[in-house]
Specification:
Strand content: 15-25%
Shape: globular
Number of helices: 2
Number of domains: 2
Distance between the termini: 48 Å
Oligomer: single chain
Length: 131
C-alpha cells in the first residue's frame, strides 16, 4: 500500500499540486518529525514483517499490560480505518473491531480503548488485597 502521500497531522491520504504550496518550512515541528519518522519506518518495513487485521494493514499500536490495541487502514474498505484488540503473545490475532471513516475517529477510539484498559488495570491494582 502506498503510504507516501499522507498528511502528517491526520494520516489521511492526500495529494498536493505545485500551486498548493505556499512556502517552505524552515524548522519542522517535533510532532511532525516524529510522525514522519513513523511513516518512513512503515514504508521501509519489508512486506513480510507488516502486520494485518484481515485486509487492514496495522499502522499504529498501543500496548497496555498484556493487551495490544491496533489501528489499521484499508483504502478499499467501506470504512477505511479500524481498531482492534489483541494480545502481545499472539502476533496478528486481533478481535473486537471498531470501524471508522476517518483517521481522527480511529485514533480517538484507539486512545480511548487503551485508556480504558489502563484504567481497568489501575483499578485492579488498587483493589488487590495482596498489596
Amino acid at each position: 500500500m502506498e503510504r507516501r502521500n499522507q498528511q502528517l497531522n491526520t494520516g489521511e491520504h492526500t495529494r498536493f499540486e505545485r500551486y498548493d504550496v505556499l512556502g517552505v518550512v524552515k524548522e519542522v515541528p517535533e510532532w511532525a518529525q516524529k510522525r514522519l519518522e513513523r511513516i518512513l519506518a512503515e514504508i521501509e518495513k519489508p512486506a513480510e514483517t507488516k502486520e494485518y487485521a484481515g485486509s487492514y494493514e496495522i499502522i499504529d499500536r498501543i500496548e497496555v499490560g498484556q493487551k495490544v490495541f491496533a489501528l489499521g487502514h484499508c483504502e478499499k474498505a467501506v470504512n477505511p480505518y479500524g481498531t482492534w484488540q489483541g494480545y502481545k503473545n499472539r502476533h496478528g490475532d486481533f478481535d473486537l473491531g471498531h470501524y471508522h471513516n476517518t483517521h481522527e475517529e480511529a485514533m480517538a477510539d484507539l486512545r480511548d480503548r487503551a485508556a480504558k484498559e489502563q484504567a481497568r488495570l489501575d483499578h485492579h491494582k488498587r483493589s488487590d488485597p495482596a498489596r
